[in-house]
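Subject: for your reference before the review

Hello V.,

The reviewers asked for a structural picture of the protein, and I figured it would be easier to keep everything in one thread rather than splitting it across files. Below is the amino acid sequence we used in the manuscript, unchanged from the supplementary table.
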Amino acid sequence: MLGENIVAAVIDVDCYQNTEEEIKYGGPKYLGFEFWVRKKEKEFMTEYVRCMLHEYNVPIINIRNTKSKIVNETELHTLDQIREVIENNKDHMFEDYKYYSKKRCK
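And here is what came back from the structure prediction:
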């Protein structure tokens, strides 16, 4: 059975500044993460994301709740999924960043 439609919030996380060349060709200004969570839980989930980034030594430039949208609840990130996404992508993201840039964002 499919889940119901609910109001979700987006947690946008900027971790590394992208290179000017990548931005010039349509890349995002920052490399990071985007998580969809229940709107009523966005403060808790934002803090959880912050803790997971800290635990896995991923730098944070900015964390913001950018928008809300009606989505099916099956599209939401759970706590375990957030941890898994950060854990599985932290090194890959940093390696991409080191390849394109010599200085690390603070």
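For the response letter, the relevant points are probably these. Strands lie at 5-17, 30-38, 62-72. The helical segments are 20-24, 42-55, 79-100.

Happy to draft the paragraph if you're swamped.

O.
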